[in-house]
Design goal:
Elements: H1 31-38, E1 42-46, E2 51-53, E3 62-67, E4 70-74, E5 81-86, E6 91-92, H2 94-99, E7 106-109, E8 113-118, H3 120-129, H4 131-159
Antiparallel strand pairs: 1-8, 2-7, 3-6, 3-8, 4-5, 4-7
Helix pairs in contact: 3-4
Length: about 160
């Protein structure tokens, strides 16, 4: 698979860091790192309306959104709560990837698209071969989780006023 179509993930000197989406995964990594990462992923096409991840299921894979849009549905007392959406360049499944627990949300396709699936086992092989990239993946997942937690905290604060 050619990594050229993932050029939008890369940070080029003409683009300022302040212009980048804070939820873009590995946005500052060189194309060689993306080629290495892509060599350890499986491509999964999806159609609008398809459920990609179900809350409660056990699967320790990380998904990178290559194309399309996904919605996040959190289990609630009166049914699922739509908590927003995720587009190309970001990730889903990072919590279960890191802690091996059950999925915390249902992820459903809003449009047709494509995910890149990185199993935890494939990550371990990648990290053993390319430790700097393995470290970068973990740090970037932590950065994205922190951004999402801040966003959630702000949403809760707004809802309580």
């Amino acid at each position: 698979m050619s990594s050229g179509r993932f050029a939008a993930f890369f940070s080029y000197p003409a683009e300022g860091a302040e212009e980048r989406d804070p939820l873009v995964f590995l946005g500052d990594r060189p194309e060689d790192d993306w080629s290495r990462l892509l060599g350890h992923t499986e491509v999964r096409r999806f159609s609008a309306g398809e459920t990609m991840i179900s809350a409660g299921e056990v699967d320790r894979a990380l998904y990178i959104v290559a194309e399309g849009r996904l919605e996040i549905l959190l289990p609630g007392v009166d049914g699922d709560i739509n908590f927003g959406s995720i587009g190309p360049g970001s990730v889903v499944g990072e919590i279960a990837f890191l802690d091996a627990g059950p999925r915390s949300a249902t992820i459903r396709a809003v449009s047709d698209g494509e995910l890149l699936r990185l199993s935890f086992e494939a990550y371990e092989v990648l990290a053993a071969r390319y430790p700097d990239l393995g470290r970068a993946i973990l740090l970037d997942l932590g950065r994205i989780l922190a951004a999402r937690l801040r966003e959630t905290n702000e949403a809760l604060a707004r809802a309580s006023t």
